[in-house]
Amino acid sequence: MTRRADRLFQIAELLRGRRLTTAQQLADWLSVSPRTVYRDVRDLQLSGVPIEGEAGIGYRLNRNASLPPLTFTAEELAALAVGARMLETWGGARFAGGARSALAKIASAMPADKRTALDRLPVFAPSFHIDETFCAKVDAIHQAVDTRHIVSFDYRDRLGAHTKRRVWPLGLVYWGGRWTIGAWCELRGDFRTFDIARMGDITVHEQFPDMEGRRIADYMRIAEAPMR
């Protein structure tokens, strides 16, 4: 069973910004009884969390409500730190800056003993072997994905053949040491996956439309999108 403190936080999160949610729905999501939900909601209300509604009707949390600060286990903190350190190394400047900022915010809100443990975590992702040109490409693709801009580049496939590609970048995909982009390729008229390390200089063009059948969700449904 989920620890009660975690369950209380989950209830508040589940209620945030929703329409009325019944105790039975919450009980099903959390794998507890409706009676437990009633008790938890009452305790949250008594602690000052602005939950509206009542038993038998449903509950909701005001969209603008502030929640208590999160608490993390040692394992959760380690996972966050490792993920942030890997992004600092492999993710380009935008991901690296976001990872450093997020980790600093988390650390500043932790007790001194946990902050010390985080600083001493013996897991590292050295950046001395990372090509700055490669990181710049990751940043350029990241920006193009965010703003929906077409990009073109010379591409070298696994057999060494070169082609000029013009694509709609839909998302960044990380394959353990290798960044790729999922994209709609104008040359092939289909989804393709491109290894960023095999891409030449990137040129950014006009924006592409948000088109049915050419979205990231459509790409993700085609798990066998071939590497070209």
Automatic annotation (TrEMBL):
Keywords: DNA-binding, Transcription, Transcription regulation
UniProt entry tagged with the keyword Transcription regulation: yes
One Gene Ontology term of the molecular function aspect: DNA binding
Positions of the HTH deoR-type domain: 4-59
Pfam families tied to this protein: HTH_11, WYL
InterPro entries: CBASS_pafABC_assoc_protein, DeoR_HTH, HTH_11, WH-like_DNA-bd_sf, WH_DNA-bd_sf, WYL_dom
SUPFAM superfamilies on file: Winged helix' DNA-binding domain
Protein name in UniProt: DNA-binding transcriptional regulator
Annotated source species: Burkholderia latens
